[in-house]
């Protein structure tokens, strides 16, 4: 059996920001089972501190955080934010999805979401990371 496209590009360095302990626990377990390297924070202020000192391929952030929201987190992270960001939220009306896109999120997953929905976003992030890495590589002669 051959590896799925997402498995062929692992691991991604993923930063998860989620204040709900059980959601964070199960999301982290799922991502680690896929061999991703996962770090996490439960508040916006903790997340900003981590983003200032570490680089990640992907940010997965809840929109509702105890000291702000995911939209503000992405804006305040500035140049230290990962190139690919995924919003996850119980808020899923059209205006919320638009606000996520305007803040810089590449996808907006409505909780509870299916693993396939997350996998699709991670596949896109992995493909983008691979393209970026190839653009910076010297050409073969």
Describe this structure in words.
This protein is an alpha/beta fold and 141 residues long. Helices cover 45% and strands 21% of the residues. The chain has a single domain, classed as Rossmann fold (3-Layer(aba) Sandwich), CATH 3.40.50. The chain is built from five helices and seven strands. The chain has a five-stranded parallel sheet, with helices on both faces. A two-stranded antiparallel sheet has the order 4-5. Strand 1, helix 1 and strand 2 form a beta-alpha-beta unit. Helix 2 (44-53) packs parallel to helix 3 (70-77). The longest helix is centred in the last third of the chain and has 22 residues, at 115-136. The radius of gyration is 15 Å and the shape is globular.
Ordered list of secondary-structure elements with their pairings:
Elements: E1 13-17, H1 21-33, E2 37-41, H2 44-53, E3 58-62, E4 64-65, E5 68-69, H3 70-77, E6 84-89, H4 94-103, E7 107-110, H5 115-136
Parallel strand pairs: 1-2, 1-3, 3-6, 6-7
Antiparallel strand pairs: 4-5
Helix pairs in contact: 2-3
Listing every helix as H and every strand as E from the N terminus to the C terminus, the arrangement reads: EHEHEEEHEHEH
Radius of gyration: 15 Å
CATH topology: Rossmann fold
Report the β-strand fraction as a percent range.
Answer: 15-25%
Mean pLDDT: 89
Shape: globular
| Count of β-strands | 7
Relevant CATH superfamily:
Response regulator
CATH architecture heading: 3-Layer(aba) Sandwich
Q: What class do helices, strands and sheet pairing give? A: alpha/beta
| CATH class (first level) name | Alpha Beta
Helical proportion? 40-55%
Query: How many DSSP H or I helices?
Result: 5
| Distance between the ends | 34 Å
Number of structurally distinct domains: 1
Low-confidence stretches: 1-8
Strand order of the largest sheet: 2-1-3-6-7
Largest sheet: 5 strands, parallel
């Amino acid at each position: 059996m051959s590896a799925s496209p997402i498995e062929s590009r692992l691991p991604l360095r993923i930063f998860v920001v989620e204040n709900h302990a059980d959601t964070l626990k199960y999301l982290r377990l799922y991502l680690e089972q896929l061999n991703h390297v996962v770090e996490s924070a439960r508040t916006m202020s903790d997340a900003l501190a981590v983003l200032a000192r570490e680089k990640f391929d992907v940010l997965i952030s809840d929109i509702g955080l105890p000291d702000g929201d995911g939209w503000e987190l992405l804006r305040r992270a500035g140049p230290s934010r990962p190139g690919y960001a995924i919003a996850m939220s119980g808020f899923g009306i059209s205006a919320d999805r638009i606000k996520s896109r305007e803040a810089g999120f590449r996808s907006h997953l409505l909780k509870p979401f299916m693993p396939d929905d997350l996998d699709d976003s991670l596949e896109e992030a992995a493909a983008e990371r691979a393209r970026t890495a190839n653009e910076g590589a010297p050409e073969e002669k």
